[in-house]
User: Which sequence fits this backbone?
């Protein structure tokens, strides 16, 4: 997502780019690598940043996580933007 940074309004908004376990900077993290675990990781990240509510932008398979979060914690999710999403039914 580095190429998108110049286009993001970083003055008025905060952004967190989360690498799921097994990917990117989280490549070496251990875990079960389940949808539930990934969803919990995102919620814990938001909580650690002090975000009671937040918007989600997902890409490809992370749309599954976004959809799960909308069902799991609807009061926390302000909106979901899914780019090239994998549907929740696979």
Assistant:
């Amino acid at each position: 997502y580095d190429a998108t940074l110049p286009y993001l309004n970083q003055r008025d908004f905060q952004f967190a780019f989360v690498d799921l376990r097994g990917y990117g900077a989280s490549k070496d993290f251990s875990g079960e690598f389940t949808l539930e675990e990934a969803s919990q990781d995102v919620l814990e990240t938001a909580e650690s940043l002090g975000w009671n509510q937040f918007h989600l932008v997902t890409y490809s398979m992370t749309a599954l996580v976004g959809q799960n979060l909308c069902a799991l914690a609807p009061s926390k999710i302000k909106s979901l933007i899914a780019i090239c999403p994998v549907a929740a039914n696979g």
In short: The mean pLDDT is 93. The two ends are 25 Å apart (CA to CA). The chain is about 30% helix and 15% strand. The CA atoms of residues 47 and 89 lie 28 Å apart.
